[in-house]
Amino acid sequence: MTALSDSIELGRRFAWPAVLACFCSAVVAWGFGFYGQSVFLAALQASQGWSTSLIASATTTYYLAGAVLIALTPDLIERCGPRAVIIGGALVLAAGALALSRATAPWQLYAANLVMAAGWATTSSTTITNTLAQWFDRRRGLAISLALNGASAAGFTVAPALVHLAQRYDLPTAVEIVAAGLLAILIPTVLFGLGGAPSQAGRATGARPVPAFGRHAALASPRFRTVAAFYALALVAQVGFIVHMVAFLTPRLGATGAASAVAAASLAAMLGRIAFGFVIDRMNQRRAAALSVASQAVGIAAMLLWPDAPAVLYGGAILFGLSVGNVITFPALIVQREFPAHAFGTVVGLANAIAQFTFAFAPALLGVVHDLAGGYAPALALCIAAQLAAAAFVLRGSAARG
């Protein structure tokens, strides 16, 4: 059997276990590195008395450091392989989360976030999309959508578990319990599911070299710039709101109600991604992306206009959540459709790095606006504006050339 035939056979045997492995990676990444940040913010406010802006600024440092590391992740996967990158990243992320939960001084807050940044960069969307690109081509949209459902699962499993365990014991104990359980599942799943990428075998067939498509070429492309602008602005709103979501909802719904709203939003994100996953490869993805962020703006606006109506708060959280997962998925699928196949890893990694560098400022910005205004209304208005601008940019890219 030829090397190419071997690679096709490997793809049939190991493709879907690879999706499961990436799903587990997403659960860990978003559980601690995304939804967990909202839990940490509220818990550290209560235990240490730190201001919203101080804690959110440390979160911004975390995302900025992660942006630099994300740009290097495709090269790291190429050099070390996805199994080593994901397992190592999960261990680092869990260690950083534990250090953050035990922080008693501002310098510890910042140091723990820097450790977490390395783990986030090597377990989140860039790693997942680049890993699955080795197994999938024609059905890549479905594969990425299913794997990134782990991000949604983290919202309605990991985040509520951290909240409830922290109330029963304390935050460090909650992180220890959750981390031990997640790692016990992730490590064997990754070792089995990523046991040999078919593309590695395919490279041995002596295929003709293709012209390089580097970061400079991507930055020169109007299509790329509209994708990057959409992704950055959408995540400014999405990350900023989610980091502050527990703090915003707790005075109105209580700690248990806020955790339930986060869980409902995350469950909605999973259902929304599953629904899109089976049709997303055949859709006009730019129009769907614009509709997704516009619906999120409507959900936040409802919560802003009726902050004392629990039903509206839950409904707004669910409407916002329906597109949380798809916003993360759309850029990779647009890149796959509009750019050369051999450039996928480079272009997706660059888009993720730009987006993360931009949205890194969102938690601190919303925290400062909250502290200055004495409430969350102006901060939520900024989120709405960012989402509407993101919709305009992605639609503009439909007419872009290059």
Mean pLDDT: 82
Tally of helical segments: 18
End-to-end C-alpha gap: 40 Å
Order of helices and strands: HHHHHHHHHHHHHHHHHH
**What percent of residues adopt helix (DSSP H or I)?**
over 70%
Low-confidence stretches: 1-12, 199-209
SS class: mainly alpha
The top-level CATH class is Mainly Alpha
Give the biggest beta sheet.
none
Overview of the structural elements:
This protein has 18 helices and no strands. It has a single domain (7-196, 214-399), classed as MFS general substrate transporter like domains (Growth Hormone, Chain: A, Up-down Bundle), CATH 1.20.1250.20. It is mainly alpha-helical. The model is unreliable at 1-12 and 199-209 (pLDDT under 50).
Ordered list of secondary-structure elements with their pairings:
Blueprint: H1 3-33, H2 35-48, H3 52-80, H4 82-101, H5 106-121, H6 125-132, H7 140-147, H8 149-168, H9 171-193, H10 198-202, H11 215-219, H12 222-277, H13 285-305, H14 310-322, H15 324-338, H16 344-359, H17 361-373, H18 377-396
Helix pairs in contact: 1-4, 1-6, 1-7, 1-8, 1-9, 2-3, 2-8, 2-12, 3-4, 3-5, 3-6, 3-16, 3-17, 4-5, 4-9, 6-16, 7-12, 7-15, 8-9, 8-12, 12-14, 12-15, 12-16, 12-17, 12-18, 13-14, 13-15, 13-18, 15-16, 17-18
Keywords:
single chain; about 400 residues; mainly alpha; Growth Hormone, Chain: A; 18 helices; globular; disordered N terminus
Q: Short description, anyone?
A:
Helices cover about 85% and strands about 0% of the residues.
